[in-house]
Sequence to fold (288 residues):
Amino acid sequence: MSSIEKSGNFALGTRTVKRLGYGAMQLAGPGVFGPPKDKEAALAVLREAVASGVDHIDTSDFYGPHVTNQLISEALHPYRDNLTIVTKIGARRGSDASWLPAFSAQELTQAVHDNLRNLKLDVLDVVNLRAMFSTHGPAEGDLTGPLTTLAELQQQGLVRHIGLSNVTAKQVADAQKIVPVVCVQNMYNIVNRGDDAMIDALAAQGIAYVPFFPLGGFTPLQSSGLQTVADSLGATAMQVALAWLLQRSPNILLIPGTSSVAHLQQNLAAGDLALPAEALEKLNSLVD
Fold:
């Protein structure tokens, strides 16, 4: 059994995907803006991911913008039948590489069509609506209008499933009154565990939770503690962080990103890593 198969599977809408996926954000240029420094290396990472068994790729047309989706289609189109591509809308990039809200019906509709065109798809498997009420994390705000637009695009057959990103528990509950939600994508890791209750609630409903920044927001002391555990297990800090997430809850789907084939292989090897009780105790003590 390969490393990625050992990570297990979970439902993502009507699809079932392996819990170790791939996030394409880092394939764009610095600051997720512009083209990659090495296009051939970026294409190689995508091809290696799928060859290694990855069947869940996370992307967005505002990465670049347009860059990662164009790389995905160049590297992988026509796609394998079991490949699920998840994208995001709700933001746009300024000419200075800033991240700006794009919540109007016109902007959301255009974003769906841009994703379809650049990915060379007739329908998008999953579209996450990214809330942009704050650039620093989830913040309360009404998503009724954007979700209504996205639901209309779903009814038109352009979107199969709808997810949410950068949202609060209240926004998830409110959204579920409008559309079925198949996944939530928020920042979460060993030391940033504000979504603990949300993860458990979603698991009870069979809904996927997709954490990003598995090493984001660590203090130097916390990073040192993580590295100590990694060294004791003969693993990298990223592998330990990913393994912890896999053991945290069965509904967690991982999308670690990298622009390096070597790092991709290291990340996927996290599926082989079973954290012993002593390591889990040390890791859980790092939480803020």
Notes: The longest helix spans residues 105-119. Residues 124 and 159 are 5 Å apart (CA to CA). The radius of gyration is 18 Å. The longest strand covers residues 124-130.
